Amino acid sequence: PGFEQTLILKCASRADVAAGLRSNLGHLLRCGAVIRSVDNLGERRLPLNMRAPVGDKPLVGHYFLVHFESPPGVKDRLRPLQRLDPFMIRGHVCDKTEADWVRPCSTGEQCKFGEKDKPNFEQAYAVKRGYRHY
Amino acid sequence: CRLVLTAVGRGKLGLSTGAAPAGQTDPDMPLADMPDPYKKPIKKCVLCRQDVPLDYKNARLLSQFVSPYTGRIYGRHITGLCQPMQERVAELVKKSQKFGYMSQNIKETFFLSDPALFRNPLSGPSVAAPASKSSKPSTSSTESEKDGN
């Protein structure tokens, strides 16, 4: 199945970023992935305090989006390889099946705004307690 | 005139006067295939109406549903979204934060000038109402005063 990885690499110099990208794509290939494309999303200020697995706490990261296909257990196989990577800040993998999510109201139904499915639930399912003979 | 039994749409039997041949509907009789005129229009939330595609990489869109002060996701009573869309937005915000596109504690400053999809929860319901109602009479009164003076 198809996956996409948001790779955040440390920004030291162009050569370092290239080396980091090469090593991380190598990890993917070692896990049995077929890399389809790599999108460069540019250098961005990190939105949250991220701790890199190796090294200092960075403030800026270089974002890449890697589209690849691989057998299902790729996340477990990738984790030990990413653990000691000196170039990477984050590299989470996501399924592409997320794009198949369909709105419930696209079939012509009305949007649900919290209306109860069973409006008389309390009346219908109330337990009648009366006088018990002990 | 002779009363003739004629079939009026969908096999229902009806009575019609005169020499109207079978198969032709009488204009005085109600239409069998008429759509319900009292049917309420389908109510949709903002995202469903515009058919907005949601993506965890689109931090700008997801940040519109997040507080600029605390970075928390606004509830459904504030955003006005329907139940499935609110759950989907919350799911994608969490994912975006995990993947490193969005912050958990703040909203990015360059997203603060984005148009608001709903009223600010900190301001009361009286924000919009007095401004729209009092604008017209106040301007006319001031103009008349100026003309008088």
Q: Keyphrases for this structure?
A:
heterodimer; A: 134 residues; alpha+beta; Alpha-Beta Plaits; four-stranded antiparallel sheet; 3 helices; 29% strand; elongated; B: 149 residues; mainly alpha; 30s Ribosomal Protein S18; 35% helix; structural constituent of ribosome (chain A); Ribosomal_bS6_sf (chain A)
The gist of it:
Chain A is of the alpha+beta class.
Write a structural description.
The complex is a heterodimer of chains A (134) and B (149). Chain A is α+β, with helices and mostly antiparallel strands and 134 residues long. Chain A has helices at 14-30, 74-83, 121-124, and strands at 2-10, 34-45, 60-69, 88-95. The longest helix of chain A is centred in the N-terminal third of the chain and has 17 residues, at 14-30. Chain B has a domain at 55-111: 30s Ribosomal Protein S18, CATH 4.10.640. In chain B, strands 1-2 form a two-stranded antiparallel ribbon. In chain B, strand 1 (3-7) and strand 2 form a beta hairpin. The longest helix of chain B has 21 residues, at 128-148. The radius of gyration of chain B is 29 Å and the shape is elongated. The termini of chain B are far apart. Chain B: One of its GO terms (cellular component) is mitochondrial small ribosomal subunit. Chain B: Residues 123-149 are annotated as: Disordered. Chain B: Pfam families: Ribosomal_S18. Chain B: GO terms for molecular function: small ribosomal subunit rRNA binding; structural constituent of ribosome.
